[in-house]
Amino acid sequence: MTTYQEFIQQNEDRDGVRFSWNLWPSSRLEATRLVVPVSCLFTPLKERPNLPPVQYEPVLCSRANCKAVLNPLCQVDFRAKIWACNFCFQRNPFPPSYAGISDVNQPAELMPQFSTIEYIVQRGPAAPLIFLYVVDTCLEEEDLQALKESLQMSLSLLPPNALVGLITFGRMVQVHELSCEGIAKSYVFRGTKDLTAKQIQEMLGLTKPAVTGQQGRPLAPQDAAATCKFLQPVHRVDMNLTDLLGELQRDPWPVPQGKRPLRSTGVALSVAVGLLEGTFPNTGARVMLFIGGPPTQGPGMVVGDELKTPIRSWHDIQKDNARHLKKATKYYEALANRSATNGHSIDIYACALDQTGLLEMKCLSNLTGGHIVMGDSFNTSLFKQTFQRVFSKDYNGDFRMAFGGVLEVKVKELGIGGTSQWKVCGLNPSTTLGIYFEVVNQHNAPVPQGGRGAVQFVTQYQHSNTQRRIRVTTIARNWADAQSQIQHIESSFDQEAAAVLMARLGVFRAESEEGPDVLRWLDRQLIRLCQKFGQFNKDDPTSFRLSESLSLYPQFMFHLRRSPFLQVFNNSPDESSYYRHHFVRQDLTQSLIMIQPILYSYSFHGPPEPVLLDSSSILPDRILLMDTFFQLVIYHGETIAQWRKAGYQEMAEYENFKQLLQAPLDDAQEILQTRFPMPRYIDTEHGGSQARFLLSKVNPSQTHNNLYAWGQETGAPILTDDVSLQVFMDHLKKLAVSSSA
Amino acid sequence: MLMNGVVPGNQERGWNDPPQFSYGLQVAHGPQRNLLNKRPPPALTSGAGAPPAAPPSSNPLAPPPCAVAPPLLNPAGPPPGAVATPPPPHLGQMRTKREAAISQSESEPEVEGVMSVLNGALAACRRAVKAQVCNEVAKRLHLMEDSWRSGRLSLPVRRRMDTLSAELQKGRWDAADDIHRSLMVDHVTEVSQWMVGVKRLIAETRNLSPELLEPLQKVRGPVEDSAEPVREPVKEPGELQQSLQLVQKEEEPDSAEPAQNPVEPVQDPVEPVQDPVSES
């Protein structure tokens, strides 16, 4: 008999789905009373080494507004060769190729263990992958050299048949012709003037000439591939392109004292998007933008070229003092939408010590499924290795990236199928979407006969080996009457999934509302949840208890409130955008790490063990390893640090100490070698300046305010006025049990 | 103290820059796995969880307590605070590899061997591939040879080029390709100018029909090291990565030395001319 924990884990392993509630309330009113909406985290392309794809087309329901895919929940009459759609109850005949099926010879898609199944479908000629590099040349010499080398290296990582293109920009924007012979040519655009897609395509010679007054039309894809001199197969142009990259110079326009370089990122992107739109609409493509500073001229500029005008901070934005913000954001959103419509992803690789305008440009990646990588310089291991990992391969030797994703979600409502569709464009095996459902049954309507609700996720995409594939996941959960079965519903609560789903809602609100309002909203939801499910005596906070399925939830909310996703204090707008970008696309485990970092302790007292993210875990004779997803911090307690300084690890009879020092490093390596993006690596100790990364994350159960109230001095007091988890919980309990709700 | 095949990050350009891993180490891993993913059970809801009672260390100079630690190498245990002249650091495994590395310094790769294979492959390509492409490849091979002879290539690069040419000659195209990739990833600054020529050469050579591969087979390839304790014959791509890691380990102590001028008279090959049957 499986527990809910096991049930939840099995479902995640098989289908890549985690629901906030695994029993669904049968009416809309009851659903809202549950506070946390019925919602799920879904990883469409979860890596499934044991799921070989099938090489035939999926069987669809014939009802025009249904078209659900045949799945294990469907009723089947093997003799009559008919199946009943579980979403709309339409009876459908099987196609002729299924004539041989029987209940002992079932097709894979009917078997329960194939609730997730992948189809390879052939639709037209295989389209190549396309990579368009858009490179900022207003970089320091050292950075430009490092970037050039990384780009040259990447040519060795691309598949030989992929198409590649190069646009460089600074004050002007240059589109490079990649012909194999003769003199290198490029088309130059002014960086100040925005052009329409049509103008760009005409100027690049991508449209057929007008014939007797007809408008120029874009070339057909086959023509485009043959004649598009800007996007050529790697195997044909790699030598020339390597040389071209090697010869790239810094932007030649001199930068006067007290000024920023003139960087025309807006026009460069417009040309890139227009180029791809005109040559390869609806084919998997990746625009990879490399920038070393903010856009300073032309459409989409984020800051002017005067250094004395700093780039906007949160303070500026709150005081409505960010001149270019709205206009630039709107500009990039328009580009992002065009790109998404065509199934093209945009990555941003921003390496600079100051901000580069990620706040305005984040939509380019967020709406197209592209990456955002943020670093200090292109000449760092963080950038170089993160960039290499873009091209990482799976167990089959195929790229992990996928293109042109379209996700359809189908639900059953009282016998009528309803569908929603989203374009996801860029996908990888960890991309996880949050999907929020609305229960539409009227209150007091009877629970549907058979008592199960079903959801089907259909993801169409282009695999990196250029095959078109369709992955279908069909899941079901029981309906429950909230009046009589509230305990069962409560025990079906997945607090980890719920925490991440509510956090994503919070981030969404934070990006469109004032900061304090989001925290108030989050607190209110938490209090309501505790009022609904807590066991307590009215007005008696000490009696408050939460069942096991909810016991961790308040802690998650406590850490979420302090996290950089909701707290913008101490981060620039670009940093906040970067953290949020990664938070809303990672899978559940990684997202939880971001909300509440993991802390492991290494000492002579026993094997490594997880410890509370609390100041009391910071002890002199321990080494702590903290993983926040974005940083890996190894913190040496005071005594450990002194021993290390004295060099005991070099002495043969203190081999055990050497091993102790090495243990967290070994564990950190595992993460460092696989995570995307690569985290920062901080090796620090008691009293070290970098220790602040640890001190700011732990629950400050001991501060300078309550130190003497503790009696025994254990653990490191944190100098903060932040509320501790204990105080937070006390307040929460008081509010939850209060009869003046 | 990080493992071999790992180099610290660039702390001057990026604060807390993470260490850099070699191509072999990165490729060997599957998708992200989370070994560190546990949290302790929540603290008691009434008040804070009592912090674990750990004995505060009063004497910062005291050695790690040996009572609960793994056994010390010296069972007598050190007296607190009074340690005699410390023994040399225990490098363990590294030592045997280092000895092995020293014992095979005579297997310093020879540029002639490598060039003859590459030029042989190029000659084979000239009959089927456009002249312009072949000339471009030749230009880059020349650049490489130049860099090698003037001592601008580090030992790890020379070693791997040696292995690459051996794989190329045996017709093990994927292995050769993988080595080129590992060189581009790990040593891009040294090789970026010419490596794409080698890459193209591999790509074109593998597409040639077998009879055209004769000039490549006839070439006297690099001398096989038969008595090599570290570098094992590579059968599968997975083994290649392992052997690359081992090569990395032995290269670490040597990488600091300036590249020696490898010009020596070509030794008479110990083995007979390669069998003309091609492997593909």
Global outline of chain B: elongated
- Provide a count of the helices of chain B: 10
Strand content of chain A: 15-25%
Q: Reading side by side through the largest sheet of chain B, how are the strands ordered?
A: 1-2
- Please count the helical segments of chain A: 22
Oligomer: heterodimer
Under the CATH scheme, which class of the domain at 111-219 in chain B?
A: Mainly Alpha
Beta strands of chain B, count: 2
Helices and strands of chain B, in order, run as EEHHHHHHHHHH
How confident overall, as mean pLDDT of chain A? 90
**Estimated helix fraction of chain A:** 25-40%
Subcellular location (chain B): Cytoplasm; Nucleus
Biased composition (Pro residues) (chain B): 52-90
Region (Disordered) (chain B): 1-93, 219-280
GO molecular function, one term (chain B): transcription coactivator activity
Question: How would you describe what is shown here?
Answer:
The complex is a heterodimer of chains A (741) and B (280). Helices cover 32% and strands 21% of the residues of chain A. Chain A is an alpha+beta fold and 741 residues long. In chain A, the strands form 6 sheets. In chain A, strands 8, 9, 10, 11, 12, 13, 14 and 15 form an 8-stranded mixed β-sheet that branches. In chain A, strands 2, 7, 16, 17, 19 and 20 form a 6-stranded mixed β-sheet that branches. Chain A has a 5-stranded mixed β-sheet with strand order 24-23-25-26-27. In chain A, strand 19 (452-462) and strand 20 (468-480) form a beta hairpin. In chain A, helix 3 (141-157) runs antiparallel to helix 6, helix 13 (495-510) packs across helix 17 and helix 14 crosses helix 22. The longest helix of chain A has 20 residues, at 655-674. Chain A is globular, with a radius of gyration of 28 Å. Chain A starts with a helix and ends with a helix. In chain A, 52% of the residues are buried. Chain B has a domain at 111-219: Up-down Bundle (RNA Binding Protein, Prp18, Chain A). Chain B contains 10 helices and 2 strands. Chain B has helices at residues 23-27, 93-103, 111-126, 131-149, 155-169, 173-186, 188-191, 195-206, 214-218, 237-251, and strands at residues 6-7, 20-21. Chain B has a two-stranded antiparallel ribbon. In chain B, helix 3 packs antiparallel against helix 4 and helix 3 crosses helix 5 (155-169). Chains A and B meet through helix 3, helix 6, helix 11, strand 22 and helix 17 of A and strand 1, strand 2, helix 1, helix 4 and helix 6 of B.
